Amino acid sequence: MSDVAIRIRGLGKRYVIGAREEEHDTLRDRIAAVASRPFRRLAPGGFAASTTIWALKDITHEIHRGDVVGVVGGNGAGKSTLLKILSRITTPTEGEADIYGRVGSLLEVGTGFHPDLTGRENLFLNGAILGMRKAEIERKFAEIVRFAEIEEFIDTPVKHYSSGMYVRLGFAVAAHMEPEILIVDEVLAVGDVHFQRKCLGKLDDVARSGRTVIFVSHNMAAIQRLCTSAILLQHGKLARAGSV
Hints:
With about 240 residues, this protein is of the alpha/beta class. Helix content is about 35%, strand content about 25%.
């Protein structure tokens, strides 16, 4: 069995800024497109002005099982776009990324939560999305809630949660569901110092268990502490890959 967890080949993601793609799936979409057409900003030639931006371009890399990889780079370097593609949230414009194993992702605060469902209901929903059986979720339920420190609010709709409560529950679910590949994007930017330490401790545990972790952060101390290797993105391209 190959020890490759993620194989990325020629990956690229292009966005068109200022021009809407002509894809109208519903009557409402068609009406909105027609209504907005007169207000579109026009270029000198009379056509809608647009700019093509490559958020990622020609990324090729392999991540092996058990690697803890830090992804670093400035704002707009393409870090979050890369993680969204690896999490199957966004499709690439070109190239491909092969994932070998079950993925657990925490990309943004409250990603995947339904605001009208309670914390308990969202926990079971997210566990099911990650491919966990109900019995497995029930077995880990108390541990997840205890880690997230939201015991008294577990039956409250998450739309009433603070951003800190959102991220605590989201991180707890993703980290405790034992995915083979855990993808974490800047989760340590939200929450107090106490919870940040808990996150780092849990990521340490995940890394020591032999699972693969991809960790985006601007916190260089955390990258150095947790990661066995790192990749540096600059303007959507892979500038360097190697030791932290």
